């Protein structure tokens, strides 16, 4: 009987403690490398809730993003398009307000935004880092864009070819906005769609490249895996704050993660690739090959294909897939194992422009064979 009493005592006293320590939710982190002076943040600047044409309550957007490892989001309900207004009355900015406490408890940066939704053309534009959404509710499109800029917002052109390239053309109205610096970026990818023309325009016109989910339905993913993740923007910030994100967006320090592709300006994508790949000292050097570990430090698989003819004294390199957050063991054929090996590849899923992949070199250090003395 005493034993039973003791058991019940332990149960009653420990059970609440066990409940307190059980995790409320689980987050699967996103791993991409930082760059010297910059930290990487995974961001999604385009999504909807029941306060426009989405089907979820605003707090759900926070839960989804946190669970999938994102660091910052903007809830951007349509200003003009409010199909649920009989049940959820128009209340601009309310979705942001409702999501704020959830964002705080999840340590997720929540940026106030809205989608300015006139007809196409001129198309839809997102304004993020707004202070007040209401003044943007005007039938005059350019007035809404001007108002967003007066609030210090970052404005970008969404899914420009959503209704076809012919309707997503660069028109006088876009040129007017561009000349006034009233929009600073474009979506190169939106959800499952990629826009090569927007990609090219971003390069030519120095606009910031963005990739966003534009989710309307619940996003049921538990993680952001290489083979299945929402479209997002990797932002390289000096500081992990809303102001830090805005500064990085204005400076164009972004890489778009869309399906199996990473897209960005070469000056950013090249150091990013070099930070993702870690080539190590070979484990074995034989007369005909070196065996070496190569690590992929990023969340995306990296696909390398041989580029051009190999150096005269080396045999052709082979195609390689480096799985996300993994180390592979490679056997690289050589004719002189003491020499450094530098096979050249094309990183097939690192795009520096539409259809243009990043050229890279794997660098495997050389070393004299045991017993062989250096000439110096
Ligand atoms: Zn839209
Ligand atoms: Zn949208």
**Can you list the ligands bound to this structure?**
zinc ion
Estimated structural class = alpha+beta
Order of helices and strands: HEHEHEEHEHEEHEEHEEHEEEEEEEE
What is the count of DSSP helices, taking H or I runs of 4+ residues?
A: 8
Q: What is the beta-strand fraction?
A: 25-35%
N- to C-terminal distance: 85 Å
Number of strands: 19
Largest sheet: 15 strands, mixed
Overall pLDDT, averaged?
92
Report what the structure shows.
The protein has a 15-stranded mixed sheet that branches. Strands 12, 13, 14 and 17 form a 4-stranded antiparallel sheet that branches. The protein starts with a helix and ends in a 15-residue tail after the last strand. It has helices at 2-21, 58-67, 94-105, 141-150, 172-179, 196-205, 242-251, 266-276, and strands at residues 39-44, 72-75, 109-116, 125-128, 154-157, 185-190, 193-194, 208-212, 232-237, 254-258, 261-264, 277-279, 284-285, 289-296, 302-306, 320-322, 326-333, 344-353, 356-361. It is of the alpha+beta class and 376 residues long. The radius of gyration is 25 Å and the shape is flat. The protein contains 8 helices and 19 strands. It is 24% helix and 26% strand. The model has no long low-confidence stretch (mean pLDDT 92). The chain has 2 domains: 24-259, Alpha-Beta Barrel (TIM Barrel), CATH 3.20.20.140; 277-361, Immunoglobulin-like, CATH 2.60.40. The longest helix has 20 residues, at 2-21. Helix 2 packs parallel to helix 3. One zinc ion binds at residues 115, 124, 158-159.
């Amino acid at each position: 009987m005493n034993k039973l009493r003791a058991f019940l005592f332990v149960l009653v006293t420990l059970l609440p403690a066990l409940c307190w320590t059980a995790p409320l939710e689980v987050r699967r982190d996103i791993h991409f490398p930082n760059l010297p002076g910059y930290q990487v943040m995974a961001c999604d600047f385009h999504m909807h809730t029941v306060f426009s044409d989405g089907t979820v309550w605003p707090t759900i957007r926070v839960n989804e993003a946190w669970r999938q490892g994102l660091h910052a989001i903007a809830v951007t309900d349509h200003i003009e398009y409010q199909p649920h207004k009989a049940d959820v009355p128009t209340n601009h900015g309310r979705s942001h307000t409702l999501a704020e406490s959830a964002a705080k408890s999840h340590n997720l940066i929540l940026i106030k935004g809205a989608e300015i939704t006139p007809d196409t053309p001129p198309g839809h534009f997102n304004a993020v880092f707004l202070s007040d959404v209401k003044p943007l509710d005007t039938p005059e499109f350019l007035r809404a864009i001007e108002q967003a800029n007066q609030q210090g917002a970052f404005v970008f052109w969404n899914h420009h070819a959503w209704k076809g390239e012919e309707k997503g053309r660069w028109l006088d109205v876009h040129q007017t906005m561009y000349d006034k610096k009233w929009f600073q970026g474009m979506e190169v990818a939106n959800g499952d769609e990629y826009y090569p023309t927007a990609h090219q325009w971003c390069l030519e016109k120095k606009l910031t490249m963005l990739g966003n989910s534009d989710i309307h339905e619940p996003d049921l993913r538990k993680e952001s895996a290489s083979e299945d993740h929402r479209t997002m923007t990797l932002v390289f910030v000096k500081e992990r704050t809303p102001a830090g994100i805005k500064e990085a967006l204005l400076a164009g320090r972004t890489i778009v993660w869309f399906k199996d592709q990473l897209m960005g300006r070469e000056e950013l994508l090249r150091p990013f690739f070099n930070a993702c790949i870690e080539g190590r000292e070979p484990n074995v050097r034989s007369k005909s090959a070196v065996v070496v570990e190569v690590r992929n430090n990023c969340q995306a698989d990296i696909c390398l294909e041989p580029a051009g003819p190999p150096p005269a004294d080396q045999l052709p390199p082979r195609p390689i897939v480096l799985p996300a957050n993994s180390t592979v063991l490679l056997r690289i054929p050589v004719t002189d194992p003491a020499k450094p090996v530098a096979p050249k590849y094309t990183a097939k899923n690192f795009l520096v422009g539409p259809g243009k992949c990043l050229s890279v070199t794997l660098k495997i250090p050389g070393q004299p064979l045991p017993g062989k003395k250096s000439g110096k």
